[in-house]
Amino acid sequence: MELIDGKKTAQAIRDEIAERVNEIKSKNGKIPHLAVILVGEDGGSQTYVASKVKSCGEVGFQSTKIEYPDSITEKELLDKIVEINQNDDIDGLLVQLPLPKHISETKVLEAISPDKDVDGFHPVSMGRMVAGMPTFLPATPAGIVELLSRYGIETNGKHCVVLGRSHIVGTPVSLLLSRKAKTGNCTVTICHSRTKDIKKFTLQADIIIAAMGVPEFLKADMVKEGVVVIDVGTSRVPDSSKKSGWGLKGDVDFENVAPKCSFITPVPGGVGPMTIAMLLKNTLLAVENR
Fold first, then answer.
1. The domain containing residue 182 runs over which residues?
2. Is residue 144 located within the same domain as residue 252?
3. What is the domain count for the chain?
4. Per the domain annotation, does 101 fall within a domain?
5. Which residues pair with 161 in a beta bridge?
6. Cα–Cα distance between 85 and 114 in angstroms, integer?
7. Annotated catalytic residue, options 5, 117, 119, 251
8. Strands 159-163 and 235-238: what pairing?
9. Are residues 235 and 173 located together in one domain of the fold?
């Protein structure tokens, strides 16, 4: 069993980005600029945005964090997005999800300029991805593909089972792994909350992407020997041994599943760091596209 080190891989990507940023600066003085909008006081979102801002500094990006209370109106938020769309100094924009219930996530995602959609969630970005055209890829699915590629994990002709069908992870990663590409050409099965006898499918899988958001859902008796497991889950669970009072659990029963795997990602330290690294990569792409 080999542990897939997302932290180490993400650091390698950040180093590559920093080198490219220096090249861009030396040519035209342009510093890549990412704007992040955070609405509300959600602890997880605040931590995640802080990590994004910190990572921007590490690779030489400029970052702008814009914070609003839960009480902001939908119109006020949409007006701010339009303002940023029109600001030529800002290369990438993302609005941290989830949003308060009175604000439509769909309207917000559609309002972001496709040229600055570094989260890869705009319908234009999604459509181009489906068509196999160059575009901003959703960060977490792109990070998963990058991990498989950099660890030399064979995907050609393999059966990949994706647990979860969200537009953030499950659906896009299923498309990326089934496309005709070096890290692709999988036969993909998507399982979800309405799938009957999920175990029947996971036992056939050469690669499993667990993204259901259910702590330790994937058990040892659900996987075959030599399987590759990518755990996307990050559920907060009570843990009295932690100062915070909680810990992170993935969607995989790591202790019992890991011995059967050829490769597996840990939680934390697996997919999570890759998500931010790929967001930075998209921001760099936005600069190069311009």
1. 139-272
2. yes
3. 2
4. yes
5. 189, 208
6. 9
7. 119
8. unpaired
9. yes
Q: What is the CATH number of the domain that holds 32?
A: 3.40.50.10860
Q: Is 248 exposed, middle or buried (0-12, 13-18, 19+ CB in 10 A)?
A: middle
- The active-site residue, picked from 96, 231, 253, 281, is 96
Contacts 24+ apart (CB under 8 A), 47-55: 48/96, 49/96, 51/276, 52/276, 52/279, 55/14, 55/276, 55/277, 55/280
* Alpha carbon distance 131, 125 (integer Å): 10
Q: What is the pLDDT along the chain (290 residues), one digit of tens a residue?
A: 999 999 999 999 999 999 999 999 898 888 999 999 999 988 778 888 999 999 999 999 999 999 999 999 999 999 999 999 999 999 999 999 989 999 999 999 999 999 999 999 999 999 999 999 999 999 999 999 999 999 999 999 999 999 999 999 999 999 999 999 999 999 999 999 999 999 999 999 999 999 999 999 999 999 999 999 999 998 878 777 777 777 789 999 999 999 999 999 999 999 999 999 999 999 999 999 88
96 belongs to the catalytic site: yes
Q: Are residues 217 and 147 in the same domain?
A: yes
Cα 97-99-104 angle, rounded to 5 deg: 110
Select from 148, 180, 181 the least CA-distant residue to 162: 148
> pTM to 2 decimals?
0.94
Query: Is 216:249 a contact under the CB 8 Å cutoff?
Result: yes
Q: Catalytic: 52?
A: yes
Q: Annotated catalytic residue: which of 52, 80, 116, 281? A: 52
Q: Do 168 and 60 reside in the same domain of the chain?
A: no
Q: Is residue 19 part of a domain?
A: no
